[in-house]
Design goal:
Elements: H1 16-28, H2 35-54, E1 67-68, E2 71-84, E3 98-113, E4 122-130, H3 134-140, E5 147-156, E6 165-174
Parallel strand pairs: 1-3, 4-6
Antiparallel strand pairs: 2-3, 2-5, 3-4, 5-6
């Protein structure tokens, strides 16, 4: 095992510019001067500030009114998404049963708050899973891939669901608003 002072491990500067940089580094980090310690202390303070700021709400939602877990009406595009089901809940291609859910892709992200301390505030949610009764699938099938307004009870997602937010719709209706990018023919 080589010692730290082994000359074969120390890289020597090859040009005058590298010598100048090495001297500047030695002067900047002179242990007797305390400059390195001050730099490291400042770096730690910066990392702590970044950590604290990253836990704060996103800027678009600071002071914004959050929805509550109650009856709401939300607009977006109604789509189907497939997830892996039993037995392993990992991969449909590896033999898990496919589970198809209906999801509302929201026009704008929403903030959802709950007064109980058991659930955290949900910021910038863009997708909500629909919890439909058996007869609702057939009733609203013609609205898939279309802009809709969903009215119903907003709920917490749980272990049995794929999304953080759920809505139990009492009504789903199509809107005349065209999805982003769709154009109407000019006559």
């Amino acid at each position: 095992m080589r010692s730290r002072r082994d000359s074969s491990l120390i890289r020597t500067p090859n040009s005058p510019d590298q010598w100048k940089m090495a001297d500047a580094l030695r002067q900047a980090c002179d242990p007797g001067s305390g400059r390195c310690a001050r730099w490291a202390d400042g770096a730690w303070r910066m990392l702590i500030a970044i950590a604290i700021l990253s836990t704060m709400p996103q800027p678009g939602f600071v002071g914004a009114h959050c929805l509550e877990y109650e009856s709401v009406s939300l607009s977006g595009t109604l789509v189907r998404q497939t997830y892996a089901g039993p037995p392993d809940y990992e991969s449909v291609t590896k033999g898990d049963d496919p589970r198809v859910i209906w999801v509302l892709l929201l026009d704008r992200p929403i903030c959802v708050a709950d007064s109980s301390p058991g659930y955290a505030r949900a910021y910038a949610e863009r997708e909500i899973q629909l919890v439909l009764a058996a007869n609702q699938y057939e009733r609203y099938r013609n609205l898939l891939m279309k802009k809709v307004i969903v009215s119903g009870q907003l709920l917490h997602g749980g272990a049995r669901h794929h999304k953080r937010l759920l809505i139990a719709p009492s009504e789903i209706r199509g809107t005349r608003v065209r999805p982003y990018g769709e154009q109407r023919a000019v006559r």
